[in-house]
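Q: Convert this sequence to structure tokens.
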Amino acid sequence: MPSLKTFHLLALAGLLLLAGCNNPDKPADFHRLDGQPGHYADFNGRWLLINYWAEWCKPCIEEIPELNAFAAAHEDVAVIGIHYDAPPAERQQQLAGELGIAFAVIRGQPHRHFNYDLPNVLPTTAVINPQGRLVTLLKGPQDKASLAAAIGR
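A:
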């Protein structure tokens, strides 16, 4: 039977582990279009593709089905979209629906978090590895094959 001291140390260790999980007091890194807060750390352990798009960008519109299909086919990959011009959330929701975007569109500044320059070409897709580090920036429209190559498949 463990001693009382051992029990207290184990209980303290458990509480410390729980304290680091899902801290509601931690400021949000981004917001979903419905206003729900999110943290980039939620994507740790998965590949993350951050796609910059705009409705006036024809290549952006053409690659949306490829991004949708890639996300649907790879459970270990998260795709999120950033509208380059950042119109109001309601307008972004409307555009996402009209363009058939199936992945999450967020409001935030991931380029600051992942340490890359804001793209100056659309579309651009930032590829973040499961450890949360930038692997590459893909400029121009992507397809399933180029996305798979970017994550080593």
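The radius of gyration is 19 Å.
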